[in-house]
Design brief:
The chain is mainly α. The chain is built from 26 helices and 7 strands. It has a 5-stranded mixed sheet with strand order 4-3-5-7-6, with helices on both faces. The chain has a two-stranded antiparallel ribbon with strand order 1-2. Helix 1 packs parallel to helix 4 and helix 6 (about 95-110) runs parallel beside helix 23 (about 500-505).
Length: about 600
């Protein structure tokens, strides 16, 4: 493509994205949205799609400055999608851990908590900084923190691949795969204020520092005590990752340790190989492992997590099998299936994983044209997947949530390797077709996978779960209930324990902060509720029942009255034991009296 035409193409692409952002901002969410995809105007998605189509095509065909512009365009589109809760003026997003993190941040801002008192204080500290510097509410500051921590993933994945191979096609393909955001699986990793997931997006930064340490010999630029500046960069990025979430720090230590084992074995098995010329990772593994151990050993949350894992391994019917069976039964009752859900949520990740797995195999068999230097990194990452997968298996048996968080880290490595794998796949295809023909097939294939990946970036009813948009009305309804309700009267909800709202509104440092597993808050008994026994639906106690637009959408529209029916909800209105004490259009709160 000639220079004027290429410049015009980029200009049109960036302009389309800018107009899409303007229209998204001009159409804020005016009520609860069960799907950010459906709630955002169609014309916004058309602008994003147009910009992304240009980015995919030019990332494959352009080189140098032009490829950087194409990667920047694609990254801008994906970052814009991630930023939609901010752009469209959501009060907040996330109803589980995100609420607790909001409470901790509120405690930091109010001076009730010091950063060092948290096990992983980075996200909360960033939120506090943005709150004070920007003069924005804490909720918005945290959403902004989510976006800031996401951007390094899009930047450093292609940079890592560039540092490993220098193949421009591999760099472009790595960028495209990074736009799929494969580490997010919406089972245990989420696009939101979720520190474990937020930490995943910083892992490529640590890996970039590691690759720089191995590839760039610092024989002259030495720091005091002979420390390599690139080694120091590994320590600094690793410690930053620890402050965001320690589980991903553990995975980095395992990664470095596995690579150290490969280097150790290479000294005895190989005579002439690039691995023998790389500086060893023994010291980095020990130092990062020691930092983690010192940081974690004195923390109660870490000890509780270890105890929970051990108990899960030893207990019967606690692991993933029981949880999968339960969810499969529920899906079947509402007309879905695990197979359908798998295709919706994981088909893009599965395709990329298969390609990467085959690429690792053919690389070890010596069937690729890759340089020995680049192939050594495939060996490093490929063998490191073995202990990482073993840890996944242990989590899967003991604590399934941790297992799917582990999958998130594995897919960070898969994303990096995918750039190299796809470059060899489509580069080989070009020998049988033509370069334009191979690029066309690559663009169409990756375009489809991109759509599948981005349509499951946020939770939505397509995954049989409504979005976790938190509106002003919802926060106001819970705040009024918590602050003006009868003291010690429990607060309940439909299908979940609402104690997290107390965290978000009042923080966690108060003496009467609600916690899960107590009678002070909880879920009403759905069988008693459906039988019309509202007075006896919560331990025969007087209680407040909070019904939100989210609850109605989930129970009636998404779950198709599996647990709570429309008739059951309507019955509360007529029951003489239930008085509606709050109603603001999105939240109804009932004071329900127990039977005398």
């Amino acid at each position: 493509m000639r220079r004027p035409a290429l410049d015009a193409t980029f200009a049109v692409g960036y302009l389309a994205v800018a107009l899409a952002l303007f229209l998204a901002r001009a159409n804020p969410a005016s009520a609860y949205e069960s799907s950010v995809y459906a709630g955002t105007p169609t014309v916004v998605w058309l602008g994003f799609a147009f910009g992304l189509a240009i980015a995919v095509g030019t990332a494959l065909t352009c080189r140098g400055r032009d490829q950087a512009l194409s990667i920047g365009l694609g990254g801008l589109v994906v970052t814009s999608i991630v930023s939609l809760p901010i752009i469209r003026n959501y009060r907040f997003s996330g109803m589980g851990d995100a609420m607790t993190h909001l409470g901790w941040t509120r405690d930091l801002v109010d001076g009730e908590l010091a950063p060092h008192e948290l096990f992983y204080p980075a996200v909360h500290s960033f939120g506090g900084v943005f709150h004070f510097l920007g003069g924005v509410p804490v909720e918005r500051a945290l959403l902004f923190t989510m976006v800031v921590l996401f951007v390094p993933f899009l930047i450093f994945v292609p940079l890592v691949v560039r540092n490993i191979s220098g193949n421009a096609l591999a760099v472009g393909l790595a960028a495209i795969v990074s736009w799929m955001v494969l580490p997010i699986n919406n089972i245990a990793t989420h696009m939101g204020i979720h520190t474990n997931s937020n930490a995943l997006f910083l892992v490529p930064v640590v890996i970039f520092a590691f690759v720089a340490y191995l590839r760039r010999r610092a024989t002259v630029e030495r720091l005091p005590l002979g420390i390599s500046p690139f080694s120091l960069l590994v320590y600094l990025t690793g410690f930053a990752l620890l402050l965001v979430h320690p589980q991903q720090m553990v995975n980095v230590v395992i990664l470095f340790g596995a690579i150290g084992v490969v280097q150790f074995l290479a000294q005895y098995r190989l005579e002439d190989h690039p691995i023998l010329e790389h500086p060893t990772t023994y010291v980095q593994t020990v130092v990062l492992g020691t930092i983690f151990t010192v940081w974690a050993a004195t923390n109660d949350r870490f000890r509780s997590a270890v105890v929970g894992l051990v108990e899960g391994l030893l207990a019967e019917d606690i692991g993933a099998a029981a949880e999968v069976d339960e969810r499969e039964a529920s899906l079947t009752e509402i007309g879905g299936s695990l197979g359908e859900l798998f295709v919706t949520m994981f088909v893009d990740a599965a395709v990329i994983a298969v390609v990467v797995g085959l690429f690792i195999l053919v690389t070890w068999l010596g069937w690729t044209t890759m340089s020995r230097e680049a192939a050594s990194f495939v060996t490093y990452f490929g063998l490191a997947l073995v202990p990482l997968t073993v840890l996944f298996a242990l989590y899967f048996v003991g604590t399934p949530t941790m297992a799917f968080r582990q999958v998130g880290f594995i897919f960070v490595l898969v994303t990096i390797l995918a750039g190299l794998a796809l470059a060899h796949l489509f580069g080989g295809l070009a020998r049988y077709l033509t370069v334009p023909g191979a690029n066309t097939i690559a663009s169409l294939t990756l375009g489809v996978l991109l759509v599948l990946g981005l349509m499951t970036l946020f939770i939505s009813p397509v995954m049989y779960d409504p979005g976790q948009h938190v509106t002003d009305e919802k926060m106001s309804g819970y705040q009024s209930t918590l602050h003006h309700g009868v003291e010690d009267q429990p607060i309940t909800a439909l299908g979940y324990d609402p104690f997290r709202y107390d965290h978000a509104i009042n923080g966690l440092e108060g003496e009467e902060s609600l916690t899960g597993g107590t009678a002070a808050s909880g879920e009403v008994d759905h069988e008693a509720f459906e039988d019309g026994n509202y007075s006896g639906a919560y331990f025969d106690m007087d209680y407040y029942l909070v019904v939100t637009a989210y609850d109605v959408n989930r129970e009636i529209d998404v779950y198709q009255e599996l647990y709570y029916s429309e008739a059951g909800l309507a019955g509360v209105e007529r029951d003489p034991a239930a008085d509606k004490v709050i109603s603001n259009g999105e939240v109804d709160v009932y004071a329900v009296r127990a039977d005398d």
